[in-house]
Amino acid sequence: MNMTKEVVVLIADDDLGHVRLIEKNLSRAGLHNPIERFENGQDILDFLFGRGERRRANEASYLLLLDIRMPKVDGVEVLRQIKADPELRKIPVIMLTTTDDPREVEHCHALGCSTYVVKPVDYDKFAEAIKQFGLFIALVQVPEVRT
After folding, report:
1. What is the 3-state secondary structure (H, E, C) of 85-144?
2. Could you tell me the residue ranges of all domains in the chain?
3. Helix residue ranges per DSSP H, 29-101
4. What DSSP designation does 27 have?
5. CATH topology for 7-139?
6. pLDDT tens for each residue of 59-88
7. pTM, whole model, 2 decimals?
C-alpha cells in the first residue's frame, strides 16, 4: 500500500461560493492536491460507487469534504452509504456544514465521519478554518480505495 500517493480532495457542496473559498484557501495553505467537485449528493455517490460517467480511480486515495444540506441526496445519507461500504468506508469524511445542531453532530459521528466542522459565516474565520484543513490534509495518511 503506497501511503505517499497524492490524496484527491473531493468536495461535495452545492454552494459554489463556498467551494471557491475552500479551493482558494487550500491553495493558500500550500496544498495543491487534485480537487474534484460535486454539486449534489447523488453525483458524489455515483462517482464513488462507479455508476456515472465520472468514476473514481482504482487504488486512489480520497478525502471527502461533505456538506450536509445538498439537493437530491443530503450529506448525512451520502455519509451513511459510504460508511456502509467495506471499501469506501476507508475514505476520511469531513462534514463541512452550517449546522451546529448537537444531534446532527452526534449522528454524523455515529455514522463514521472523521471530523465535523461548522462553516463560520464570517469570511476570515472560514478562510482560516480551511487553511488549517490544508495543513491537516498535507499531514494525514489516507489508505487507497480499490474497486
Report:
1. CCCHHHCCEEEEECCCCHHHHHHHHHHCCCEEEECCCCHHHHHHHHHHHHHHHHHCCCCC
2. 7-139
3. 41-49, 75-84
4. H
5. Rossmann fold (3.40.50)
6. 888 999 999 999 999 999 999 999 999 999
7. 0.85
The conformation of residue 53, written as its DSSP 8-state character, comes to S
Q: Which residues pair with 65 in a beta bridge?
A: 11, 94
Q: How many CB atoms lie within 10 A of CB 14?
A: 16
Query: Distance between CA 76 and CA 81 in Å, rounded?
Result: 9
Sheet containing 61-66, strands listed edge to edge, beginning at the edge strand earlier in sequence: 35-38, 7-12, 61-66, 93-97, 115-118
Place of cell 463556498: 18
How many residues make up the chain in this entry?
Answer: 147
pLDDT computed for residue 3 by the predictor:
44
